[in-house]
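Ticket reopened. Same input as before:
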Amino acid sequence: MVPILWYLLLAALLFAFGLVGVLIKRNALIVMMCVELMLNAANLTFLAFARQFGSNGGHAIAFFIIAVAAAEAAVGLAIIIAIYRTRGSVNMDEVRELRDEA
Amino acid sequence: MNELLTAERITFLVFAIPLVFTAGLVVVTKNPMHAAMALVAAFFFMAGIYVLLSAHLVAFLQILVYAGAVMVLFLFVIMLLSLGNEHLEREHYKGMQLLGVVGVVGMTIVLAMAIRDSVGPDVATVAPDFGTVKAVGRALFKDYLLPFEATSLLLLVAIVGAVVVAKEKI
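Engineering reply: fixed in the latest deploy. New output:
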């Protein structure tokens, strides 16, 4: 039997990887991939606890997370395409119109 | 030794070690195409971990929806934008970003310590149909019917939103 602890630690590690990617990457596409990684880590946590408590509820929530991730990817990639059309770049540092420059 | 390394634990490690490696590759690589390929591999290893947790349906969905649909969407966008070499990630990082990484490392250590100290109940013995389409479907349609229907609405809105945002003229 694999301890549930191992799954939780693995999920924490994957979440940390995703968060580091979101913080240091400047390519919007790779940032979105790192967000997907973080959502997957959350999924793993839900499934680990579902296994620990023997409940199918965690699986239902994982199902919803997958649906939300798909919707997020579709809309996010559409926004990236729109940004690329208007500026010819997907670098997040160059998209700063709404930033307070003071 | 036999207690520590059972067949199930070895299987876990067989999936977990490449999973961590490929997930790290997503963050380290500079080329979006390489990152996407590493992420596809990570999703496959993740599906293996899900099977170990007897989440058969979710493992299947993981491969169909994530490794299939979502990553194909990513690959299409990467090829559509056809970014040249000048768009590759620049190497120098700002101090704020490095500070953020230090914060993430600290957060992970705190998380790991909290996980280590937490004692839940022992792992439940589950019914043979745990995590199958039938069992999860029953949970979805009995206990989670409203969120399930809301999901269909969410997907519809996402489709319309994606078309509206990405299209030049409607």
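The CA atoms of residues 50 and 56 of chain A lie 6 Å apart. The radius of gyration of chain A is 17 Å. Please confirm and we'll close it.
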